[in-house]
Design brief:
Blueprint lengths: L4 H37 L2 H20 L5 H18 L1
Helix pairs in contact: 1-2, 1-3, 2-3
Length: 87
């Protein structure tokens, strides 16, 4: 355990950031899974709405610093390619 006051604060701050990042990352992964599951099930009418929600979640993760901008672009591109192939 840390003895220095600043180190104790860093532990608290990093725990808070880790919890926030985990929540955002989990929500993003869930949105992506919903899109891939809908494409696999052939639900063409739901796919576009789910895609827009997933893109929104990815953009939010990117703006919060959870994803790098290139990672976000790659994930959005792959999702769009998957949806366009299915539709």
């Amino acid at each position: 355990m840390a003895n220095i006051k600043s180190a104790k604060k860093r532990i608290l701050v990093s725990a808070k950031r880790q919890a926030r990042n985990k929540h955002i990352n989990s929500a993003t992964k869930t949105a992506i899974k919903k899109v891939t599951k809908a494409v696999g099930a052939g639900q063409k009418d739901d796919v576009q709405a789910l895609l827009s929600q997933a893109v929104c979640a990815i953009d939010k993760a990117c703006s919060k610093g959870v994803y790098h901008k290139n990672t976000a672009a790659r994930k959005k591109s792959r999702l769009a390619k998957l949806v366009n192939k299915a539709v």
